[in-house]
Write a structure and sequence with these properties.
Pfam families: RsfS (PF02410). This protein has helices at residues 5-16, 45-61, 92-98, 100-103, 113-116; strands at residues 20-26, 36-42, 68-70, 77-81, 85-91. By secondary structure, it is of the alpha+beta class.
Length: 117
């Protein structure tokens, strides 16, 4: 199981809306922005928005503050800042272009099998 409960909630919410290629990066010691980045993509504008909406709903139900939500209307790259976890929901066409996994390549990948089953 993941150490961070917010990270676990985010990954499950993304998976519930069929977010694809979910990757979590441990940013501790790599960036001061957040402890974790979660990166995923949807195959359409509607799916990107559905993932972002589900994530917003789930974390708010748990009393977690959303510090910032950007890009929802355009649905190309939605950024959801949960404080120690920042979630990036890309449209599949944008994900390869920005390639955050490579940009933050020195951050260790978090094992998600315990969360996704």
């Amino acid at each position: 199981m993941l150490v961070n409960e917010t990270l676990s909630l985010a990954v499950k919410a993304i998976d519930d809306k069929r977010g694809e290629n979910i990757v979590a990066l441990n940013m501790q010691g790599v960036s001061l922005i957040a402890d974790y980045f979660v990166i995923c993509h949807g195959n359409s504008d509607k799916q990107v928005q559905a993932i972002a909406y589900e994530l917003k709903k789930v974390v708010q139900e748990q009393g977690i503050e959303i510090k910032r939500l950007e890009g929802f209307d355009q649905a190309r790259w939605v950024l959801i800042d949960l404080g120690d976890v920042v979630v990036h929901v890309f449209h599949k066409d944008e994900r390869a272009y920005y390639n955050l996994e490579k940009l933050w390549g020195d951050a260790p990948v978090v094992e998600l099998e315990g969360v996704l089953g």
